[in-house]
Structure formats: C-alpha cells, structure tokens
Amino acid sequence: MDLSKLWFIFRRPCSTPAPAACTSEECGRRRLGIAFKRRPAPPLKPPLTSCARRGKTCADMHKRPHTSRFDDELAVGEVFLEELLTSPPLLAWQDFLLNPRRLRGSDFLMRWSQGVWSEQRLIDAVRTTGEFFAIPYGPSGTAPTGDVRAFELYFERLEAAGLGHMKRPDLLIFPQGSAEKVQREVEALGGPAELPFTPEADQRITRLVGAAVLAVECETSLWRAQRMPDFHSPLRPMRRLDGRLGLPKNAVLPTIIIKEEDRAPLRAWEQQHGVPIHVWHVFYDRAYGIAFDRAEELIVGGVTDLTVQVFQAPGGATTRKPIYKHYYHHGYALGESVADPQLVPDYIEDRNGHILPYVRFTGGTLALLPEALGVLRQAAN
Q: Would 31 be classed as within a structural domain?
C-alpha cells in the first residue's frame, strides 16, 4: 500500500469550516477517510399493551384464574410485600440459622399469623366493653389457629363440601345479655368451627344471626397508622374526582379496604338477615371502621377510586383483584393500641423434617374508642 496516500487521507482537512480545530465526530471520521452515513431509523410501530407483549388478549390476561379458598385467605398483596421489604421490623433473625424472609412461604405464614392476631384483638376489645361480645363467624375466624397445616386442611374440607367460595362476615357482635342464648345456639351447631359448614338457610343459623346487632368484615395491614406520611393531611378538592374531596393517588395514609369481589355477597347477606355490616381495618397501632352502606355510597358516588391490586397465593399463582381503599376520614376511629404486640420468631416443621421459620404475632391490646362504642350502642337500639 502506498503510505503517502494514507498520509494524505489522514491529513485531509475537515469540510466544515470552523475558526478552531473541529473536534466533532463527523470531522474525526472524515480525517480517517470513513464515509459518514447515518443509519436510517427503523419504522415506528404502535406501542404494545402489556397483554400483547405476552401474546395474549386483554380478556385472557384479566380473566381471574380459579384459586382455592385457602389461597384466597393467605393471598398476599404486592403492597404488603413492599411494606415488609422496605420497612422491615426489628426482629431477632439471628436466633435462626436460616433467614425466613429468604424462604418462600414465610410471608404467607406471617399473613396467617397477622390475620388470626388482628381478629382476636377485635374480639378481646369488644369483650372488654362489658356491654357486647363477639364470636367468629366467617371461615377465616373459625378455622384452627394453632397449626398452619390444620388451617389448610380446614379449607380443603370447605372446598370438598362445595363451600370454598362462601362469603360471610368474619365476626358477629351481640349484646352481653344474650351470651347464654348465643352459646347454646353455637354448641347446638357443633361449636364455632362447624358454623361455616351450616347453610345460611338453616333455622339455627337464622336464630343465631338474628340476635346479632352488628356483623364485621375484618381487614388488617402491617403499618403504624400514625407514622404514615399523609396521616394528618386534610382532604381537599381533586380534579380527578371532579372536585370531590380526596388526596393525590400516591398519598400514603390509613385506608379501609373492601374487595370488589366481596361487595355483592356481603350486600346479599346484609339484605337476607337484616343485620348491618361494618368493615373494621386493624393497623399495628390503630383501627378504623366504616359502615358497609356508607362505603357503597362512596363507591357509587365516585368518591373512592377503584384500584387494581396484585395478590400472590402460597402456591405462587398471582391474581389481579379490584379493591376500594376508603380514606379513614370517611369512617370512624375504632380503637387504639394500649399495648403493642410482640413479633416473635417461630417455625413449623413438616413430616419430612423440613423447618420453615416465620414471625408470629402475639399479645397486644386494642381498646375501643368512644366513637366505636357509640356505633355499637346505636346498632343495638
């Protein structure tokens, strides 16, 4: 090769006049004798939806898969897992050789323990008023609480009886004066654990429910309500709500949750028995309530937006469920924690010797506030 030509190519001046030496990429390419050609941009394609990326239609993607009642009870929302990972409680993990948060299933055991603990706190809080008492009525409240395997077998029995997707309120509340009558009715049905296996049309169930002054649907969240960033934020007119009072969508504050799939069966149950339903949402330090009828008004009136939540069942399946998160401002203050619970390490062991550690909720006391006691007295009258 003739080196003089190569030297000439390298020394070829830039075609772009400039007062100083040009350092542009085009100039450098020209000095090296490389043709500068910009690759044409690919033709634009319409953006794909998340469903199309998976090669499925929207109808296929949003069709709810069949899940067992056991999976439904222990399904964990992505928000719950996000809370657990972003704000983990200070616990004695060093007592274990294995970190339970790294083991699949620990989150669901914690969810199970949390649900049992929150319902029991509500039952204890109602009993300490001296005017009322509560009994578990829905499947989650009457299921065994000391053994997670027994809990699973209980829901398998419900599935086998064709009652897996039956929906009842979690608690029934009665005046203290009817305690003996209620106890006789429950014993005649075989005890609290047998209540879900007795049809709603049974005359014994009708008599039992007829004595109740209030039915309660329980929800729980692993948050300290008073420390949530928007706890003290007042509601203000929102454009997305057409001027109705609310908060930005990303506001973090206590809410009272109702699942869309529960609305119709709870409404039907309330109409059948004539007993008002309230939703009680328990947080780590506080609890809030709202009448089911009031929640329906907020939904129909467009005050509460629909939110789609992703839930994961113990078996790994995920489902997308629409829920309504009512601001606590629309409800009433139910109770305050006067003694915090303890989060203690525990474990279960299967028949093959496999040990799965998890965190168990124990202790803690919730005291009903005067506003909640007034709600119970009004329902009793």
A: no
